[in-house]
Amino acid sequence: MKEKSKIHNKKVNHLDKGEKILDYEILPKTHSPMYLMHKYWARKPANIVAHYIQRYCTEKGIVLDPFMGSGVTILESIFNNRLAIGVDLNPMANFITKNTGIYADIPKLERAFNIIKEEVEKKNSIFTKLYELQCPSCKNSSTIITHLIWLKKKDDLNHELEEIRFKCSNCGEIIANHSNFNEIFISIKPFVLKQEKIALTLLSLEHIAIPNVSFKYSNNQAFIQLRHNLRKQPELTELFTKRNYTFLVFLINLINDLPEDYENEKELLRFCFTSSLGQSSKMVWVINKRKGKTLKKKQVGSWTHHFFWDPSNFFEVNAWNCFKQRFSKLKKGKIDSNERNNKSQLKFKLADSFKDLSIKTPVLLWNKSSTQLELPDNVVDFVFTDPPYGDSIQYGELSTFWNVWIDQKMDAYKKKIETEEIVINSHQGKNLNSYENKLKKVFREVFRVLKPNKYMVLTFHNTSFKIRNALINSVISCGFEICQILFQLPSRVSIKSMLHHEGSPIGDYYIRFQKPRQRLNDKKNTYPNPLSEEEIYNKIKVYIINILKKRGEPTNFIWISNFLDEILFKGHIFPLDNLESYIIRLKNSNIFFINEEGKWWFTSDSKPKDCEKPLTIKIEEFLENYLQDHWAEIGLSKKTYKQTIFNEIYLEFRGICTPDKYLINQIIEKAVTSHKKTEII
Predict the structure, then answer these.
(1) How much of the chain exceeds pLDDT 70, in percent?
(2) For 363, which DSSP code?
(3) What CA–CA distance (Å, rounded) separates 544 from 536?
(4) Cβ–Cβ under 8 Å, residues 243 and 199
């Protein structure tokens, strides 16, 4: 399906002549295999990041990301022929970025994997002792457990084995569960439970040390991102069954013991290992229903949350199978990054210092805080970054889950994030003020190293007014001037998120700042506000009225909020520290009515006569016409048809009329069902 030229065919130019430049919405594309090798939170669409790099940095220029994360900015800079400097306090950021970008010898990587595979699957290995059983039907002794389902009883911390799935080379997949006193389940359950019970002793017999880490800080406070039983027992080992944990310890030791001439491959396999941990853990929840219907065969969930938890029902997935599946993704990802290395004039090669940064070694990665950058003044051509989101994602805590396996000294690591990580976290003693003050230290450094008149694009997920203002104030207080605020379309990758109505912030802000050639002294705010409180109140009231008139129907406040900052900026009353108080006042006024679903609309006396047609009806009409014109070409037999329709709707309805994913999903389901029935008739 061709995407509409009004968004995608605009020419990308590097612009620094001082004229007014306007950015525009870009439809996010799905992540390529390179970015699917390892989980990381809040990874931004690579095509959007690449667009800004191409637009605001000339080739061979230097791009800086002071909050590197999974390295999208770094990778897109290199593969678009720009030099890149990435900084992040979290060692996993370096680990993921390096292993994503580095060139891989695929045949040698496969040989390294096969060395591991031979050790894992040989007779009487720890793996066979943990996962192998005798098939109850054909007595095949090489039958492998693939999945177990554990169910927590009420008022009990322990889980009961509920279902056993195993694969026999003769009989295929067999599912035996607790219901109806299944004979197969009863016959093999004791053996499976015994494997779980003796698991850790197998490591002792092999003299293999058992790694562990406590999810606590030096002040004895537990991590803030713990849920359920993890709050009472904050230990890494509690996130795994004994069987899977034992095997994972065995597996990482095999990887670490690879011959010296496989050093690069060892790193990539460690990368593969950490990427497999989530699906090997207890955090894999059981999906019992789809679209309100109970499933005959329960489906495997995944670790999608921004916290550690032990769900009441969880899947224990064979950890070796998890690793093999991730290895398949690793190979696809490395083929992808190899191709991009081959096509790019610059290759992903690491410099040791800024002095060594060159077209031959164009990547500099630092595992440190960005509050002090070992860079000269005025050397960076462009900054693109995605700073921490206040209290919403605790990167340091969550990455403990991975870092403990890759030789990090965990006491030192936890102390480092406790003292230096820029977050809001009451268990670390960090509040909104400390968050803003540390951000100021970073952006002072960024301001110093950025060339005059050059740009920084800052992107972040929509969150509370207070956190947004703290972030933006921290930037402008350092001397930056705001050029544009753009609300970007929701990510294209998460169709399943359409099923969760208003469950999380929607879309991202992209704010472009410029370093002026001359900085004003003691500049506290780029836009000092000369208006009275009443004048500001009336302006905000008019803005919200216009948003609702344009959408034409009751609207969740998050959609009003998404565009309010952009409108306030254009009205020269942004940032506004006490915006929340104005919103509360308007909420309690006689102008707006808040229904039971929390949606804003006009009271019967205040509804304007010039409200547009309801957004829902507009989408339904658009979709009806679209399906008539494109029914054959969208390919309803393919899994991607809904994504295709979804993208077309977002191309048509943008800005203030950007619709809710949940609403779109309902409209698509209804329209497609109706169209199918019409076609049959």
Answers:
(1) 90
(2) E
(3) 12
(4) yes
pLDDT exceeds cutoff 80 at 466: yes
Q: Which of 661, 469, 654, 481 is nearest to 565 (CA)?
A: 469
Average pLDDT over residues 40-50: 93
Task: Please state whether the peptide bond connecting residue 659 to the residue before it is cis, i.e. omega within 30 degrees of 0.
Answer: no
Confidence at 141, pLDDT banded by 50, 70, 90: confident
Residue 344, exposed/middle/buried by CB under 10 A (0-12, 13-18, 19+)? middle
Cα dist. 627→54, 132, 615, 636 in Å? 36, 51, 18, 11
Kindly give the residue spans of alpha helices, DSSP state H, lying in 425-500.
432-449, 465-476
Q: Tell me which amino acid residue 13 is.
A: N
Q: Which residues pair with 165 in a beta bridge?
A: 147, 175
Let me know if domain 527-612 sits in CATH 3.30.450: no
DSSP summary character for residue 463:
-
Q: What is the mean pLDDT of residues 441-454?
A: 98
Helix axes 319-343, 242-256, angle to 10 degrees: 40
Q: Helix (H, G, I), strand (E, B), or coil: what is residue 203? A: helix
* CB distance 42 to 386 below 8 Å: yes
Q: Which amino acid is at 51?
A: H
The distance in angstroms from the start CA to the end CA of the chain is 28
User: What 3-state DSSP class applies to 297?
Assistant: strand
Let me know how long the chain is.
Answer: 681
**pTM for this model (two decimals):** 0.88
Give how far Cα 583 sits from Cα of 12, 55, 405, 586, Å.
38, 36, 47, 5
- Between CA 300 and CA 292 the distance in angstroms is 17
Give, as one character, the DSSP assignment of residue 353. Answer: S
* CATH superfamily to which 5-90+356-523 belongs: Vaccinia Virus protein VP39 (3.40.50.150)
Distance, in Å, from the CA atom of 458 to the CA atom of 240, rounded to the nearest integer, reads 37
- The answer to whether the CB of 390 falls within 8 A of the CB of 464 is yes
Helix (H) or strand (E) holding 643: helix 641-652
Q: How confident is the model at residue 283 (pLDDT cuts 50, 70, 90)?
A: very high
* pLDDT category of residue 633 using cuts at 50, 70 and 90: confident
- Strand-strand pairing, 159-168 and 143-152: antiparallel
Mean pLDDT across the chain, nearest whole number? 88
Cα–Cα dist 55/53, whole Å: 5
> How does residue 156 score in pLDDT terms, banded at 50, 70 and 90?
low
3 state SS of 575: coil
* Tens digit of each residue's pLDDT (9 = 90 or more) over 291-331: 788 888 999 999 988 999 988 899 999 999 999 999 999 99
Cα 457 → chain centroid: 19
> Which of 192, 124, 132, 206 is CA-nearest to residue 162?
192
Residue among 441, 433, 440, 438 at smallest CA distance from 419: 438
Strands 132-133 and 313-317: unpaired
Query: SS3 of 511, please?
Result: strand
